[in-house]
Structure formats: structure tokens, C-alpha cells
Amino acid sequence: FELKFFFNSGLNREGGREDIASKSVQEKIREILRGEGDRPYSDQDLVRLLRNQGIRIARRTVTKYRQAMGVLPSSKRKKFF
């Protein structure tokens, strides 16, 4: 096993606070997506919502986490009536 297998990667938080684990960020993304209504959030929307919670993250990182969780892009999550 590679050494990185045994550790979670982390992200910096705004305001000089402690780092946050990538698993925690994925859980926050999952919570946000559970609460979305008829209009799904784009990856950029997720970045904005996470920044409001003090988590600095790039859109491509949100995309990577979303794909790792098996969540489809916003265009595929739209609910048609």
C-alpha cells in the first residue's frame, strides 16, 4: 500500500482555522444535495455554498468528490414534470 492510502487528504478553511478532512467535505456536499429542491445545484453553486460555511474549495475538486460519490451532474439530476 502507498503511504497516502492510510491518510485522508485535507482542505484549508478560511480565517486560518484548522484543516478539514476531505471525507467531511464530501459529507457536507451530500447534505447540501439532499436539501436541493426542484432546481439542482451546479458544481459552482456547491462551491459558493461551501465557501459560505468557511470551506475554500475549487470547482474541479467539488466535481471530483461528486463523481466519487456517484452523484450525477446537475443537468442529469433535473426533475421533469
Outline the structure in words:
- With 81 residues, the protein is mainly alpha-helical.
- 46% of the residues lie in helices and 5% in strands.
- The chain has a two-stranded antiparallel sheet.
- Helix 2 packs across helix 3.
Per-chain topology:
Blueprint: E1 10-11, E2 20-21, H1 22-34, H2 43-52, H3 59-68, H4 74-77
Antiparallel strand pairs: 1-2
How many beta-strand runs?
Answer: 2
Q: Structural class of the helices, strands and pairings?
A: mainly alpha
Instruction: Estimate the global geometry from the Cα principal axes.
Output: globular
Helix share of residues?
40-55%
Report Rg. Answer: 14 Å
The proportion of residues in beta strands is under 5%
Q: Helix and strand string, N-terminal first?
A: EEHHHH
| N- to C-terminal distance | 48 Å
Largest sheet: 2 strands, antiparallel
With strands numbered from the N-terminus, the spatial order across the biggest sheet is: 1-2
Arithmetic mean of pLDDT = 82
Summed up, the helix count is 4
Low-confidence stretches: none
